[in-house]
Amino acid sequence: MIQRRPTVLLLVLAMAxxxxxxxxxxxxxxxxxxxxxxxxxPILRDFERQSGVKVRAVFDTEETKSTGVLNRIIAEARSPQxxxxxxxxxxxxxxxxxxxxxxAYLSPEAAAIPPAFKAADGTWTGGxxxxxxxxxxxxxxxxxxxxxxxxxxxxxxxxxxxxxxNPLFGTTTMHVAALADAWGDDALKSxxxxxxxxxxxxxxxxxxxxxxxASGEVAFGLADTDDAAEALHDGAPIxxxxxxxxxxxxxxxxxxVVSLAGPHTEEARRLVDYxxxxxxxxxLVDVAAHIPLRADVKPAAGGKRASEIKTMQIDYAKVxxxxxxxxxxxxxxxxx
Length: 336
Known about the structure:
Layout: H1 5-26, E1 28-33, H2 37-51, E2 54-59, H3 68-75, E3 84-87, H4 93-98, E4 125-137, E5 162-165, H5 170-183, H6 185-197, E6 201-203, H7 206-215, E7 220-224, H8 225-233, E8 238-241, E9 252-259, H9 265-275, H10 278-288, H11 316-334
Parallel strand pairs: 1-2, 1-3, 5-6, 5-7
Antiparallel strand pairs: 3-9, 4-7, 4-8, 4-9
């Protein structure tokens, strides 16, 4: 019996080691993201350090931004691989809700998020946001002539002097869909037709709009909060205007955290809780010039909280449907 003890002890140790290894392997979470890696990866690393849970992240490429990982989640529906989707907006996740690919979760961290920026059933919860802004070149536009509305893009006095990104892609797609819901399809189509007749430059991206305005090639254009922050950081002669503050309000696009039907349920909930926490939102505000939704998150220098902006009242799920409906017409409008 004495001679067998080392063998028994080794067997027990091997079994314990195997159990610990299995447990270690299970303590991971898979997140798919459509937000820039440079902004989000430090937040994920902070979560790893604090939780001990390994994060496997899959990022969209610049060419497939907002649609690449979304399509991958849909393609993997029969064998879900992702536990969490961290989206740059709350509209595209509606396609996942529609297909039953979301595992609803009401995070305790969601309590501080205003009702307009989260789903009551826990299918998605908003975080730090971007806004659709008018970037105005101050050397081209006098203070008394500052545009105040997105409708000013079609004003004849600015013929050939404005720019927007192609509405078939990115945040501009979401914006035109939100305008269609606010104005009606006919009014939206009339507005875009007027833009074309007015010589509005159709840029390849919001970044290109920023360049056109900063260089003075156009007087003003429509882009996002992060584009404005980059231009100001570079010392461009730009005035930032939150459009339609005396009317329908400015479009706000919160990031969205979505729990999926992946294999790591408990770890997914822990990650969702962290991504919706004050430290995570504060970091996204600090490094990416996003707009905080929560009262206990400080805005970026010179920036605002969501509560300080008159925002468009929109139904993000409805906007998702409108985006799909408008695509054929927008392709014709863009000549594609």
